[in-house]
Amino acid sequence: MTGMDAATLRRALRDADPALSRFDPLPRIVFCDDFDRGFCGWTQLVGNYEDTLDSMLPSYAQHTQPMLSTLPNWDSGSHHGLDGGYVLKVQSRARKGSRNTAIKRLTFRKAGPIRLEFYFTFKPEATELRLSETDVRSFGFLYDLQSGDQAAGGERVMPHFRFLNALDGQHLQKWQFKQALQPAKDLGTEGKTATHDHLSPEGWEDLPGGAQKLCYNEIATKVNWHYACFDFDLSTWRATGLRINDRPLDVSAFQPMRMPAWRNLWCMLNIVFFVETDADKRAFLALDGVCLSGDF
Amino acid sequence: MLAQNIAAVVCRNESWTGACATEPYECGWAREAIVFVRALKAPSLPPGTVARVQVSPDGMHWADEGTTLALPQAAAELRFARVTHFGGWLRLVAELPEGAGITLLVTLHLKE
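YS: structure for the whole thing
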């Protein structure tokens, strides 16, 4: 093994492992979740509250638990995952505009470049014998980040992306981002807890050049897996790349939400996936493989 | 490898009146489940009001599994039902009589 540097060896080992070689991680893999091993820390995003659950914003109260799914279909049985039997499924309620989420919560060790890679697919519930290609409104992902407690000018920063598939029946198929802040609301009486609906429908902006036709397939029960890779730098709060399948998207116009630091969130690194329905039927986002890596 | 064992909150602080159901939950990986129901506020229910466990082949079409559960009659009261051999999907349903209501927390505790 003379003459092989650490990076080459690391790359060779990664390429020899089918579970890893489908990703292009930065040098340190923080996690690489395969849902045949269970939920791997992905859970429901419950809204904030104090004293009573009634204080939770309705947009959060609708959230429910993600599922380990085989993507079963009434006409063709289980579709299964990209690799193995199970996928993580996030499913909305059967009410137009309803959304659901899955979240994984951690903190970061170094404020530097991070890369989020995942394989995904999306579909409406197959309640009709129609293509139903405009019944999923959107799906997307976001980071919820906050600087360390010793950082000067502490900030909470929330990069949001969504693929707006359809709105009110119009097939739009484009990537959007959101930097507009939603008003924060204090909860309870102790002055310790607040909430804001950062996923609300308002304020989404088109990513320039972000129109993209994704493979939907020919009936409502056939799915195809897609690849996504998002690069973000925790030291500058800048997006440095977004790739969906064969397409690198230009993120030079992208801006995350930025706000003064909140009181209990230092070094936070949360990742959220979400889906919204555009019809009175459930929509789902499925993930089979999520890899977070960093340059540290 | 330890067996999977999860708590899934499928209904949180929802007020049920009339015909109600929890959202469908796909859990075919699990061999057994306990459905817990807790009243979050004082219910207004005739004694003996029950909820029914249902199963489904696809998350869209439902049939009674046979297990029933008497709904709580007081705030904070906890009831549960055990279910096994349920296939791929579970939900809890109830038809409450006119004027009856309950605000509840429903959790599924699932084990491989």
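YS: worth flagging: Chain A has one domain: 26-180+203-294.
IM: good catch. Also The first strand of chain A starts at residue 28 and ends at 33.
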